[in-house]
């Protein structure tokens, strides 16, 4: 039997309209949501499905939330959109001269 005790308490991550926050309330840092199967969801997709509390559907069951501090953008498992880091890399990538 799957317990719902591992479910994320989402109350603190919802806006008054019921949608999930895309940014933290302090510092406005980028937030992403983690599902039971290890997937990453953006705030829009975590909000849109409405299945985030069904323990029998691990691709939607939210078990965590975190700030994406730095590094490469994360990819949302549902819409494949990029979740940008709070502190993006300022260094040019290989082959990029840094000039516009």
Descriptive report:
The protein is mainly beta. The chain has one domain. Helix content is 7%, strand content 17%. It contains one helix and five strands; from the N terminus they run ββαβββ. Strands 2-1-3 form a three-stranded antiparallel sheet. A hairpin with a 4-residue loop joins strand 1 (31-35) and strand 2 (40-41).
pLDDT average, as an integer? 82
Distance from N terminus to C terminus (CA atoms, Å) equals 57 Å
Shape: globular
* Number of distinct helices: 1
Largest sheet: 3 strands, antiparallel
Total domains: 1
- Estimated structural class: mainly beta
Helix amount: under 10%
User: DSSP strand (E) fraction?
Assistant: 15-25%
Strand order of the largest sheet: 2-1-3
Radius of gyration: 16 Å
Query: Quick one: how many beta strands?
Result: 5
Order of helices and strands: EEHEEE
Unreliable segments of 5+ consecutive residues: 1-5
